[in-house]
Amino acid sequence: MGCIVLPLAAGVVLILLGAYTSSRFQASVAVGASAATMAMSLLLLFETLKGNIVVHKMAGWSAPVGIILVVDGFNAFIASIIVGVVLAAAVFSIGYMRGEASLNYYYALVMLMLGGMMGVVLTGDLFNLFVFLEVMSISAYGLVAFKSYEMEPLEASFKYLIMGGTATTIILLGVALIYGAVGTVNLADIACRLRSGSLLPGVSGSLVLPVSLALLVTGFGLKAAVFPLHTWLPDAHPAAPSPISAILSGVTIKVGVYALFRILFVIPLNVDFAFAVAVLSVLTMTVGNVMAMLQTDIKRLLAFSSIANIGYILLALSVGLSGGTYGVYGLTSGLLHVLNHAIMKGLLFLTAGAIVHAAGTRNLEELVGIGHRMKATAIILVIGVLAMAGVPPFNGFISEFSILLAALGAGMGFFAALMLANILLAFSYYLRLLYILVWQAPRESLSTVRDPSPSMILPMSVLASLCIVFGVWPQPVLMLSHHAALSLLNLNGYIAASLS
Predict the structure, then answer these.
(1) Strand stretches in 63-106, DSSP E
(2) What is the pLDDT of residue 149?
(3) Region 247-253: what's the mean pLDDT?
(4) 92, 135, 338, 435: most buried, per Cβ within 10 A?
(5) For residue 412, what are the domain limits?
(6) How many structural domains comprise the chain?
(7) Is residue 422 part of a domain?
(8) Structure pTM?
(9) Which stretch of 321-325, 405-409, 415-419 has the lowest confidence by average pLDDT?
């Protein structure tokens, strides 16, 4: 409960007291609330490692009548990733956003977005998932448009608003159809009734359930930037302030991924989705990587790369949906990549933000050799780029290689080969990025550029260290990912805990 209430309360406090407080106080509230939420998330994660499922009944009412929060190993894992990236971005914002006007609204929206994301992953029913998704989305639209004195953020935010609003409308229609079919929106109760065939009169044999699932998958797929519903992302993520870009690419799109994972395992319709998801995964990763190769804007390149990595995660989901011996391994590798990509892409967007903040441009042609002027940033950049490119011994290699092995083991060699080709494609444009920013001689116009303040270097350094640690010593995060995958598959335990 505190993981949701604390950031939401912090957001409200910042809005109400912003005019009477300094920017330092506002940043301290955001960082403090994020750190406290991180501590609570880790406590919940440790509790689930004992085999427990934590259920909080709002106002003491039990499900399915009452609203409940349900924490298992799966969503505790995702929640910890979310708040970790938000904490890093909040610390980075202290230096990056210094001097901007209306910072109380900036930090308030960050906190509201965090509360919304935590609500999505921890709630036990579809309607409140929709409500928290709206809180997250509206905050994100405002943050993308935060620099409203520039035209690009306004245009990007409007496009994001239109497509995001379409997604939430589609999701709400799906929720309404589910309720009309089974008479409940509680996730555990939905699964229980579908298993027993306890549908409302006139629903059995109709297309209500398949259509409702299709609507939910489409809506959450749009939130996750799955091809062909990805077109909002390359505009929104670069236009946002860089700490927000790190949150959006690192974890906000993973909220859509979380919902896809949860929904596809809660609503069984005896339909094999594995092949369809595999096809979507290959299309998503290929479009993302090909478009990334064509970019001259550093943040736009990273945004398209995020789309490609959603494709990698979808391939792992496809393996999980295929079941069999490698189903759990597929889910484990996919969830590991959710973690690793959040760290790597959060790092790269923060690093890109430091570069753009110093140089005043996102154009790669104007950033040639900037690594010679920003040596600490360049070292961190190299670590992040090599990790994203899948080079050992960094963390990106571990999760990408695990997905490839899972796909091969599940008999999906063709899709594994296409993913390998995409990894090589990504390696080529990341190598080009390093060549431009680090290896070439610096431009004369960059002679006065220097490394950023310690408040910006610190979160970048922590994330870069995690790229190394989780690559050299992956066992702890592999164990956590495996535990999360088993929790996702433990539908009996989820139902029993939720409805008890």
Answers:
(1) 68-71
(2) 79
(3) 95
(4) 92
(5) 272-500
(6) 1
(7) yes
(8) 0.94
(9) 321-325
